[in-house]
Design goal:
By secondary structure, this protein is α+β, with helices and mostly antiparallel strands. The protein has four domains: 57 residues, Orthogonal Bundle (Arc Repressor Mutant, subunit A); 122 residues, 3-Layer(aba) Sandwich (Udp-n-acetylmuramoylalanyl-d-glutamate--2,6- Diaminopimelate Ligase, Chain: A, domain 1), CATH 3.40.1390.20; 81 residues, CBS-domain, CATH 3.10.580; 116 residues, Roll (Thiol Ester Dehydrase, Chain A), CATH 3.10.129.10. It has 16 helices and 23 strands. The strands form six sheets. It has a six-stranded antiparallel β-sheet with strand order 18-19-21-22-23-20. A hairpin with a 5-residue loop joins strand 16 and strand 17. Helix 1 packs across helix 3, helix 2 crosses helix 3 and helix 13 crosses helix 14. It is flat, with a radius of gyration of 28 Å. This is DRTGG domain-containing protein.
Length: 436
C-alpha cells in the first residue's frame, strides 16, 4: 500500500498543468497533516512537478523530458530573474521556445516575435500589447510597470507579463546562463536513464529459500538478486557467493548480505561507475527516498553509458571540457607527451595557473594516455603532488605521464610537468582500471 507521501505525489502528478496548489488545500483534500503535505510538495518541486514562485504560489508545471531539458518554463524564468508577475499567471506553466530582445521598431520586432517566445523589452506599453497578441510572453526590464489594459489582456490570453529590476543585458545573460546550465545537465547521464525498472527486474523475498535462488538463476540466467521485505524495501542482496555450499532449505534472509549499497534515480552514471569499481560490485539496486525498490543497474549498463557519453558532441561545455580542449598530444622520443596553454580563465587571483586546473590537466593527460594504449578507462583513486611551481598565464606547458605499473585492475603513473625546460610540477597517481 502506498504511503501518504506517495499518495500526495501521485495526486499532484494527476493535477492539470497550470493548477495552483497549497499546503492547506492538499492537507484538506487528502486528509493529511500540513507537515506531510508541505514535505510532499517540496519533493514534487525537486522532481519537477511543480514550481513555487514568491507572491504567486505553487503551480503545477509540465515535467520536462530529458531531451527537452534546455527549455525553461515561464515560472522558472520568474525565479531566475527574481521578478514579479504583473498578469497572465495562468500561463506560468508554459514553456518558452526562445527569447527576443526588443531593441528595434515595433514592425521589425514583431517579425522576430511569435508564439511561445519571451520578448524582453523596457517600458513600451504598445510593444507589450503587440507581443501578447502575437502569442509571446513579455518581460519588462528596469522595474517598470505596464497598463491595466495590457494586464487584462495577459490574463485573457494566459500569457505571463513579468517585471524585473535588472537591465535588459543582465536579464538576457541570466536566462542564457540558465539554458546553458540545462544543456550541461542534459549531457549528464543519470541512473534513471539506463536502469532496468522494477517490473523488468528479478528479485527475491527474505522468506524464499536457497532452492528458490537456484530456480530463479536458471529462469533468468542471473545470479545476483536484491532482497525485498513486505513493503518492497531493499534489505539485502544475494549472490552465488552467498548460496554456494548452503543448505537448500535455508531462507534467503540467513545467507544474504544485509544493508547493501544502493543508489537513487538522480545519481550520475559516472558516480556509480566509481562506486562499482572501488567496491567490486556488479549490480546495484536503485531505490527511492523511502528505500523502496525501483530497479537495477549493472556494470554492463554503466560501461555502455560511459562509451555513449564519449561519442556525444559537447553542447554545453563544462570547466573540465575547456581544460581538455587545451591539451594536445605530441610524440617525443617515442613517448607520448601533452602540451597545454594556460589561458587567462585558468589562472587564480595572482595570474598563475590554478591548483584545480593543474590537477585536472594532469588527470586528463593520464586518462588519455591509458585510452590511447588501449588499457581502457580509469578512475583516479589517489594523487600525490610532490611540488608545484607557479606558471604564468599564456605559458606553454608540457605534461609527461609515464606508466610505472599497469595490471588488470590497478595502474601507477608518474607525471612530470615542464614550463620550457624547467620542471614545475611532479605527481604520482594510483588508478583503478575499468575492465571493458
Amino acid at each position: 500500500m502506498a504511503t501518504k507521501h506517495e499518495q500526495i505525489i501521485r495526486y499532484i502528478d494527476g493535477l492539470p498543468i497550470g493548477e495552483k496548489i497549497s499546503v492547506r488545500q492538499i492537507a484538506k483534500e487528502l486528509s493529511v497533516s500540513e507537515g506531510t503535505a508541505y514535505r510532499a510538495i517540496k519533493d514534487a518541486e525537486n522532481k519537477g512537478y511543480v514550481s513555487t514562485i514568491e507572491r504567486v504560489g505553487t503551480i503545477r508545471i509540465e515535467r520536462k523530458k530529458k531531451e527537452n531539458i534546455e527549455k525553461l518554463t515561464f515560472a522558472e524564468i520568474v525565479n531566475i530573474i527574481d521578478g514579479q508577475v504583473l498578469g497572465g499567471k495562468d500561463g506560468l506553466h508554459k514553456t518558452l521556445t526562445k527569447f527576443v530582445i526588443g531593441a528595434m521598431k515595433i514592425d521589425a520586432m514583431m517579425r522576430y516575435t511569435g508564439a511561445g517566445n519571451l520578448l524582453i523589452v523596457g517600458n513600451r506599453t504598445e510593444v507589450h500589447e503587440h507581443a501578447l497578441r502575437a502569442g509571446a510572453a513579455v518581460l519588462i526590464t528596469g522595474g517598470f510597470d505596464t497598463s491595466d489594459h495590457v494586464k487584462r489582456l495577459a490574463d485573457e490570453m494566459e500569457l505571463p507579463i513579468l517585471s524585473t529590476s535588472y537591465d535588459t543585458f543582465t536579464v538576457a545573460t541570466m536566462i542564457n546562463r540558465a539554458i546553458y546550465d540545462q544543456l550541461i545537465k542534459k549531457e549528464i547521464i543519470l541512473v534513471e536513464d539506463i536502469l532496468t525498472s522494477a517490473e523488468n527486474s528479478a528479485w527475491m523475498t527474505q522468506t524464499e529459500t536457497v532452492s528458490d535462488w537456484y530456480k530463479k538463476k536458471k529462469a533468468t540466467d542471473h545470479s545476483r538478486f536484491p532482497v525485498l521485505d513486505g513493503n518492497q524495501k531493499v534489505i539485502g542482496i544475494v549472490t552465488a557467493k552467498d548460496v554456494i555450499g548452503q543448505n537448500e532449505n535455508f531462507t534467503i534472509e540467513k545467507v544474504m548480505t544485509k544493508n547493501p549499497l544502493t543508489v537513487g534515480r538522480k545519481t550520475s552514471v559516472a558516480s556509480v561507475a566509481h562506486m562499482m569499481i572501488w567496491e567490486g560490485i556488479e549490480v546495484l539496486p536503485v531505490v527511492n527516498e523511502q528505500q523502496k525498490f525501483e530497479g537495477l543497474i549493472s556494470r554492463q549498463d554503466v560501461l555502455k553509458a560511459l562509451q555513449m557519453i564519449q561519442r556525444q558532441p559537447q553542447v554545453g561545455e563544462t570547466i573540465d571540457d575547456t581544460i581538455t580542449k587545451q591539451l594536445s598530444v605530441v610524440q617525443q622520443q617515442g613517448n607520448q607527451t601533452f602540451t597545454f596553454e594556460v589561458s587567462p580563465q585558468m589562472t587564480n587571483q595572482l595570474g598563475t595557473i590554478s591548483y584545480g586546473v593543474f590537477t585536472t590537466m594532469m588527470t586528463e593527460a593520464v586518462t588519455q594516455l591509458f585510452r590511447q594504449q588501449k588499457k581502457g578507462e580509469l578512475a583516479i583513486e589517489n594523487m600525490t603532488i610532490y611540488f608545484l611551481k607557479p606558471a604564468q598565464m599564456d605559458s606553454k606547458l608540457t605534461i609527461q605521464p609515464r606508466i610505472l605499473e599497469a595490471g588488470r585492475k590497478f595502474g601507477k603513473v608518474d607525471v612530470e610537468v615542464y614550463n620550457g625546460n624547467v620542471l614545475i610540477g611532479k605527481a604520482m597517481m594510483m588508478c583503478r582500471l575499468i575492465e571493458k
